[in-house]
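ligand=adenosine-5'-diphosphate
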Amino acid sequence: VRQLGDAAREIGAGNLTARAPVAGGGEIGRLSETFNAMAARSEERESRLAELDRLKSEFVSSVSHELRTPLTTIKTLTRLLLHGGQDEAERREYLETISFECDRQIDLVLNLLDLSRIESGKSHLTLTRVDAGDVVGACVTMERHAAESHGHELRSVVAPELPPVRADRTALRRVLCSLIENAIKYTPEGGSITLKAEESSGEVLIHVADTGRGIAPEDVPYIFEKFYRGRAPAAPNGDGTDAELSADTADYAEAPGVGLGLYIAWKIVGQMDGTITVESAPGRGSIFTVRLPAWREQAVEASSGVEFKL
Ligand code: ADP
């Protein structure tokens, strides 16, 4: 009983690794076992909280970085433009960079707003009959300029007679655009990005495949988590062994981002009764697959006009 008391005092003082000796199978022994199980759970919770804390500080520092870098560029280029003296081509280039950086800022703020809406349960989706092929086409059109500015080929293949899906059109567009933007970001210049939509056993599958840096196997289980950012994986050598990070891949370790895109995509797809998965091989690219239930006419009454809450 005294040793049990000592262990309780140690835990109270902050040493969560303290445990009571378990002596015999009597009541004191059982009490010690229960006490130790409680101590183990507290220790585990503490370490999860510490990890969350670490992720939060990392998040704050990446958000600050993500906000500061484009703002500095915008400020510098605006100053140069105010001083004047550039020719028309230069002026245009500066203005295009400013516009691109503004878009990046808007994207970041939208992601943060989405996150807070999701967390507070205020995000609503309206599930209706949606032509997935149309949405794929719209996303390819929206992202074409960004893809081409990195020298990527962006194309889509939509199976003929693809059934409509039960989804929220705007939300689906956000998910697919965000997958394409990741593909653009994590693929070295001159890559290829392909969207493919097909039917499989009553579901519609939309694949977003790239020829980029791929995802390290140890990161794969976590990439859909909030604030998680993966490291650039080592590209395999011809003989199957891991190479050192090449200058090219090392650059991509610094790709801009705060680790929210896939978390938000995963939440949205889940709310549309779908799933999102990934297959990836380091150095050989990634394929993200969104599966959505095909639209069924009898679902009309149940879903039209109904608001679904994230
Ligand atoms: P962010 O891009 O801001 O880091 P995301 O949530 O969109 O956040 O992605 C989480 C992580 O998943 C990224 O940091 C990256 O490591 C990995 N990832 C996502 N998409 C790809 C892709 N197409 N190719 C390689 N890695 C990817």
